[in-house]
Design a protein that fits this description.
By secondary structure, this protein is of the alpha+beta class. It is 57% helix and 14% strand. The model is unreliable at 37-53 (pLDDT under 50).
Length: 180
């Protein structure tokens, strides 16, 4: 068996542990990617893992602008409630594009806590009613018939639909079109 020189023994002594460490890091990274792939299937949102620590997760959730105020709440009450219930930290990205229909909420914390906060935000979004606005153009000759004697027809439509604003919007749009 050939004898190794001092330099060769030092190279082996340093090389073997470094190789073992690199293989371990590669194994951990591949294993964590498998878990990340499973999470991507569950959510439609853009998920970004923090490199700083392995136990902390950061995700970005798109929130419609119409609901952002409700998610935040008066004086931040709803955000504080979501943070308290989930244990994750929640804040919104600065508004880069004010014309975008959505804002981005950033949730940070442990994976389970982040998922719970995401579910709470989705719940707030899902609880909001869908508002449908439909414009109907009416000829001038039909305006009086739609309004009715003393506004009787419009009041009846408002009463049946349960919508108080219907009366206001309908009258404004009818009068604007009738006298233009």
């Amino acid at each position: 068996m050939p004898t190794l020189s001092r330099e060769q023994r030092v190279a082996i002594a340093i090389g073997v542990p470094i190789t073992a460490i690199l293989l371990y890091i590669l194994f951990r990274r591949l294993r964590s990617d498998e878990f990340d792939d499973e999470d991507d299937v569950e959510t439609d949102y853009n998920e970004v893992e923090d490199v700083a620590s392995t136990s902390e997760t950061t995700i970005e959730v798109k929130v419609p602008r119409t609901v952002v105020g409700l998610v935040i709440g008066k004086g931040g009450a709803n955000i504080k409630k979501i943070q308290k219930e989930s244990g994750a930290r929640l804040n919104f990205k600065d508004d880069e594009d004010e014309e975008s229909p959505e804002r981005t909420a950033i949730i940070r914390g442990e994976r389970e806590k982040v998922k719970k906060a995401e579910l709470l935000i989705k719940k707030v979004i899902a609880m909001q009613p869908v508002i449908v606005v439909e414009e109907v153009y009416v000829p001038k000759q039909a305006c009086g018939r739609i309004i009715g004697r003393g506004g009787q027809n419009i009041r009846q439509m408002s009463r049946i639909s349960g919508e108080r604003q219907l009366l206001t919007y309908l009258l404004m749009s009818l009068f604007n079109r009738a006298y233009i």
